[in-house]
TrEMBL record:
The keyword Transport applies. This is Uncharacterized protein. It comes from Paramecium primaurelia. InterPro entries: MCP_transmembrane (IPR018108), Mito_Metabolite_Transporter (IPR050391). PROSITE patterns: SOLCAR.
Length: 293
């Protein structure tokens, strides 16, 4: 990543631009995320019922039974999540990186990864309530419920702590995801520039964003599934007593492959999501006089 010069010393603006880019990406890929959540819930607790099966059938079943609008359940919560979680995890990456190391463009892969861990975990903790709301709303089949009705229901039956269910797996997922994301994107750009003489621009940003999406799907799928299952359980349907309990029960009842349920829709989502998010962020940075990553 380029050193932050005087013209780039705009941390609030950098975070604001990250939020705009993330909201654009989240809104564009939300239907795929909804299918992913349904697939991750499927087969839970030894259930043999496989209604959705894969991304294509899942999309068709949701559309057929609940209408097109159902693919956008939880959209407002999702956009709220991006406005907090992604604003912080992207916006704080560079400050954390330069706090850890002053090497500028020679920053090591380990420093980049650790900076991503720090910014990702910070964003995940702050945005946990939005994540719970998003997953609860996406999990509901049949009737539609507003985000305000869902908040009221959670507070009434579970209290304020209900909005912080799944904080640990969410924190770990956010840390791993952002560490992998920023280190992969940052390092891939540096490598392509040094060895293949790529110039800063759309082509370089596109290639690096796509490669980052694949790495994210591989590294975060298991924790993403655990997070989804814990967050989606309400007061009257508690199956898991935490991260380890969920992991053990999932493995015993469904096998190791269960941790990669929803992998393909996650990959399909991460590709476009990262391309939109990172390219829009980079282009906005250029327009505002902030150096590219």
């Amino acid at each position: 990543m380029n050193s932050i010069g005087p013209e780039e010393n705009k941390p609030i603006l950098r975070m604001f631009l990250a939020g705009i880019a993330s909201i654009a990406a989240g809104g564009s890929t939300h239907p795929v995320d909804t299918v992913k959540v349904r697939l991750q819930k499927e087969g839970e607790g030894k259930s043999d019922v496989k209604k959705y099966k894969n991304i294509l059938r899942g999309s068709y079943v949701i559309y057929k039974e609940e209408g097109l609008r159902a693919l956008y359940k939880g959209l407002s919560a999702s956009l709220g999540r991006e406005a907090t979680y992604s604003t912080l995890r992207l916006g704080l990456y560079e400050p954390f990186k330069h706090m850890i190391s002053q090497d500028g463009e020679k920053t090591s892969l380990g420093v980049k990864f650790f900076a991503g861990l720090m910014s990702g975990s910070t964003g995940a903790i702050v945005a946990n309530p939005c994540d719970v709301l998003k997953i609860r709303l996406q999990s509901i089949s049949g009737h539609h419920q507003s985000v305000f009705a869902e908040i009221t229901q959670i507070l009434h039956h579970e209290g304020i702590l209900g909005l912080y269910k799944g904080t640990m797996p969410n924190l770990l997922r956010g840390a791993i995801l952002t560490g992998t994301k920023m280190a992969t994107y940052d390092q891939t750009k540096q490598w392509l520039k040094e060895h293949f003489e790529f110039k800063e621009g759309f082509s370089l940003q596109f290639v690096c964003s796509f490669a980052t999406g694949l790495m994210l799907s591989i590294t975060t799928a298991p924790m993403d599934l655990i997070k989804t299952r814990i967050m989606s359980q309400d007061a009257g349907h508690k199956v898991y007593n935490g991260l380890m309990d969920c992991a053990i029960k999932t493995f015993k009842q469904e096998g190791l492959g269960a941790f990669y349920k929803g992998f393909f829709p996650q990959w399909i989502r991460f590709g476009p999501f990262n391309i939109i998010q990172l390219i829009v962020w980079e282009q906005l940075r250029t327009l505002c006089g902030i150096k590219n990553i």
